[in-house]
C-alpha cells in the first residue's frame, strides 16, 4: 500500500526493484530549484531523520529534479478549480514522480510543482519499509495536481498567542500535506498580534491580552516578514486577516478614541460586553486607522488578498454595518489587494472578484450528555449575557440568507463550514491511547458538540453546497479557533489528523466520501511515524489506530 496523502490524481505501480533511499543518495537539480531543495532537505530530516546533502557522490542512483512547463503528461492534467491566493499560474503545482531502482525523477511545471512532488517523496520515505541499506521506495509513477487552487487553514493566533516557532511548525504541517494558504487571524477582541508603526500602542497595549489569564504577544514586523518568507519557501501564501467591525475590543483598549462615533459617548459600548464593542462608520478616525493598517500589512504580504473579517458584529445596526464594510472594502482594494471576508459581509455587498468565506452551518450540534460543560457560575457571567445570547439568536436567524446573496452577488465561495472544517470541535470517539481521554474531553469548544474523525471526513467540496456553481468555489479552508487551546500540544492535538483530512478534500480527485474514508484511514495510519519524528502531538483516534491489546 502507498501511504501518500492527499490521494494523487494518478498512481501507477510498476514492476521491478525499489529505489533505495539512503543518507548518501545524491540530489541533482538546477539552481532555480535551490529554495525547493533546501526546504525539502529540512522537511525530510524533520520527518524521517534522513539527512541528504546536495553534493553528488559519484554515479549512485540519484534524485533528479527538473522544471518542464511543456511536459506532455502534465499538460494532460485538468487545471484546478478555484482561485490562487497569489493569483499565480493555476497549473503550477502539477508534477510527476517516476521511481525505479536506477533513480527518482521529479518533474514539475514549476519549482512549486517540484516542491509538492518532494513532499510526496518525504511521505514515501516516512512510510515505506526500512531495508538494510536504506528505505525501499516502491517502483511507481505518480502524476499529480490539485483539485482546488486554494487549500489552507484559518489560524487564530489571538485567543492563544502562537509563537513564531509554533507558527512555523504549523507551516511545516501544511507544507507536508500540500496546502498553499495560511490565513492568519491577527486581531480579535482579546488581543492584537502584529506591530503597526503608525499605531504603536497596538503592539504596546492591545497585544497584551489573550483568553482568560493567558499572556498575549505580537509579531514584530521582522518576525512577521520572516514567517511570510518561511511560508513562501514552502510555496504557501500568507493571507492576513484584520478583523472588523466586531471582535474589536482590544483595539479600543489601546485607542479608546476609535470606539463609537466620536461624538456620542453612548455609541462607544466600552462599558458593555466585548461582543458589543464594534467599530462605527461615523468615527472620524476609524477609516484613517484602517488605511494605515492595511498599507503596512500590504507592504509585508506579497499575496493577492487581504481578509477584512466582517463576522459577528453582534447587535450592530444593519445600516451602520453595511456602510462600515463597504468603506473598509474600498480601502482594502485601494491597496491593490483583493478582498476575502466572512459570509456576513454579503450584507454590505460582495463584488464578483471577492471571496466570501462561508462558515455558519446550523446542522450537527449534537452534544453528548457526558460532554456537556458545567454551566458557568452566575458571578462569571458578563452583565449583559442575556443580550449577548439574544444577539447570537438573531445572528443565527439571519445567517441562512447570506449564501443566496453571495451567489446573487457573484462572489467566489471559500468553504469553511463548521461541521466539517472547524478543528476546534471536540473529538467524539475515544482515543486508542487511554491517556489521551482527559485531553479529548478538555480540548475543543464544548458548544459544538463532538464528531468522529470519520463523520468530519464524510463530505465533498463539490456537492456540499449544491446551489453554488462549481466554478464559484474558490477552495477549502479549515479553521482553528484557540479559546480552549492552552499549549502547542493542545493545538496539534486538534489539528492532527483532521487537518490532513481537509487538505485531502482540497487536493484529491472527487470520490465517494464513504469509500474514500476507508482508504484514507488506511493510508493515514502509517503517518504517525512522521508526526512522532517531528514531535507533533496528535489525536490517536480509535477509528484509525488499534487500542493496545486489540
Ligand atoms: C466564531 S468563525 C468565530 C470565532 C470563534 C469561533 C469559535 C468566526 C468567523 N467567528 O471568533 O472563535 O466561533 O469556534
Secondary-structure topology with pairs:
Blueprint: E1 10-13, E2 19-21, E3 27-28, H1 34-48, E4 62-67, H2 72-75, E5 95-100, E6 103-108, H3 111-127, E7 130-131, E8 134-137, E9 140-144, E10 150-156, H4 164-176, E11 181-185, E12 187-188, E13 191-192, H5 201-206, H6 221-233, E14 237-241, H7 249-254, H8 286-300, E15 305-307, H9 318-334, E16 338-342, E17 355-358, H10 385-398, H11 402-409, E18 412-415, H12 418-421, E19 425-427, H13 437-442, E20 445-451, H14 453-457, E21 473-480, H15 488-495, H16 498-507, H17 513-524, H18 528-534
Parallel strand pairs: 3-4, 4-6, 10-11, 10-21, 11-14, 15-16, 16-17, 17-18, 18-21, 19-20
Antiparallel strand pairs: 1-9, 2-8, 5-6, 5-9, 7-8, 12-13
This protein binds ligand TNX.
Ligand TNX binds next to loops.
Report on this structure.
By secondary structure, the protein is α/β, with parallel strands linked by helices. It starts with 9 loop residues before the first strand and ends in a 16-residue tail after the last helix. It has 18 helices and 21 strands. The model has no long low-confidence stretch (mean pLDDT 95). Helix 4 (164-176) links the parallel strand 10 and strand 11. Strands 14-11-10-21-18-17-16-15 form an eight-stranded parallel beta sheet. Strands 1-9-5-6-4-3 form a six-stranded mixed beta sheet, with helices on one face. Helix 8 (286-300) runs parallel beside helix 9. The protein is globular. It has helices at 34-48, 72-75, 111-127, 164-176, 201-206, 221-233, 249-254, 286-300, 318-334, 385-398, 402-409, 418-421, 437-442, 453-457, 488-495, 498-507, 513-524, 528-534, and strands at 10-13, 19-21, 27-28, 62-67, 95-100, 103-108, 130-131, 134-137, 140-144, 150-156, 181-185, 187-188, 191-192, 237-241, 305-307, 338-342, 355-358, 412-415, 425-427, 445-451, 473-480. Bound molecules: ligand TNX.
Amino acid at each position: 500500500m502507498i501511504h501518500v496523502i492527499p490521494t494523487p490524481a494518478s498512481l501507477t505501480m510498476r514492476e521491478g526493484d525499489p529505489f533505495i533511499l539512503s543518507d548518501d543518495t545524491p540530489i541533482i537539480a538546477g539552481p532555480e530549484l535551490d529554495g525547493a531543495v533546501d526546504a525539502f532537505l529540512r522537511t525530510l530530516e524533520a520527518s524521517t531523520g534522513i539527512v541528504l546533502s546536495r553534493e553528488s557522490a559519484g554515479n549512485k542512483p540519484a534524485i533528479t529534479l527538473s522544471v518542464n512547463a511543456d511536459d506532455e503528461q502534465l499538460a494532460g492534467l485538468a487545471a484546478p478549480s478555484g482561485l490562487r491566493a497569489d493569483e499565480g499560474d493555476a497549473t503550477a503545482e502539477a508534477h510527476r514522480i517516476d521511481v525505479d531502482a536506477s533513480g527518482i525523477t521529479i518533474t514539475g511545471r514549476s519549482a512549486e510543482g517540484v516542491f509538492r512532488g518532494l513532499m510526496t517523496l518525504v511521505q514515501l520515505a516516512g512510510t515505506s519499509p526500512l531495508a538494510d541499506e536504506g528505505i525501499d521506495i516502491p517502483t511507481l509513477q505518480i502524476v499529480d495536481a490539485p483539485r482546488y487552487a486554494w487549500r489552507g487553514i484559518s489560524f487564530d493566533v489571538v485567543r492563544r498567542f502562537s509563537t513564531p516557532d509554533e507558527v512555523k511548525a504549523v507551516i511545516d504541517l501544511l507544507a507536508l500535506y500540500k496546502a498553499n494558504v495560511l490565513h492568519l487571524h491577527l486581531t480579535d477582541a482579546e488581543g492584537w498580534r502584529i506591530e503597526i508603526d503608525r499605531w504603536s500602542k497596538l503592539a504596546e497595549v492591545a497585544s497584551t491580552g489573550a483568553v482568560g489569564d493567558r499572556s498575549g504577544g505580537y509579531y514584530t514586523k521582522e518576525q512577521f516578514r520572516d514567517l511570510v518568507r518561511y511560508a513562501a519557501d514552502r510555496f504557501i501564501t500568507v493571507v492576513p486577516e484584520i478583523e472588523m467591525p466586531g471582535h474589536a475590543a482590544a483595539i479600543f483598549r489601546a485607542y479608546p478614541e476609535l470606539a463609537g462615533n466620536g461624538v456620542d459617548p453612548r455609541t462607544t459600548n466600552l462599558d458593555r460586553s466585548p461582543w458589543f464593542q464594534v467599530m462605527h462608520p461615523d468615527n472620524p478616525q476609524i477609516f484613517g486607522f484602517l488605511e494605515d493598517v492595511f498599507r503596512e500589512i500590504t507592504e509585508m504580504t506579497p499575496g493577492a488578498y487581504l481578509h477584512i473579517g466582517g463576522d459577528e458584529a453582534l447587535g450592530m445596526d444593519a445600516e451602520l454595518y453595511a456602510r462600515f464594510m463597504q468603506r473598509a472594502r474600498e480601502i482594502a482594494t485601494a491597496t491593490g489587494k483583493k478582498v476575502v471576508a466572512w459570509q456576513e459581509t454579503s450584507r454590505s455587498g460582495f463584488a464578483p472578484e471577492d471571496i466570501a468565506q462561508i462558515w455558519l452551518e446550523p446542522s450537527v450540534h449534537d452534544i453528548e450528555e457526558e460532554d456537556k460543560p458545567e454551566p458557568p457560575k452566575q458571578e462569571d457571567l458578563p452583565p449583559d449575557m442575556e443580550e449577548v445570547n439574544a444577539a447570537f439568536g438573531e445572528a443565527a436567524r439571519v445567517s441562512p440568507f447570506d449564501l443566496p446573496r453571495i451567489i446573487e452577488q457573484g462572489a467566489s465561495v471559500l468553504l469553511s463550514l463548521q461541521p466539517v472544517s472547524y478543528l476546534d470541535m471536540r473529538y467524539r470517539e475515544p482515543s486508542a491511547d487511554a491517556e489521551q481521554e482527559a485531553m479529548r474531553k478538555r480540548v475543543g469548544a464544548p458548544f459544538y458538540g463532538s464528531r468522529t474523525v470519520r463523520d468530519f471526513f464524510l463530505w465533498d467540496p463539490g456537492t456540499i453546497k449544491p446551489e453554488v456553481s462549481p466554478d464559484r468555489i474558490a477552495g477549502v479552508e479549515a479553521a482553528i479557533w484557540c479559546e480552549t487551546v492552552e499549549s502547542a500540544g493542545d493545538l496539534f492535538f486538534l489539528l492532527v489528523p483532521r487537518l490532513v483530512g481537509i487538505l485531502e478534500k482540497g487536493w484529491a480527485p472527487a470520490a465517494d466520501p464513504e469509500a474514500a474514508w476507508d482508504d484514507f484511514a488506511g493510508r493515514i495510519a502509517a503517518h504517525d511515524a512522521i508526526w512522532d519524528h517531528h514531535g507533533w502531538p496528535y489525536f490517536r483516534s480509535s477509528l484509525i489506530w488499534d487500542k493496545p491489546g486489540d
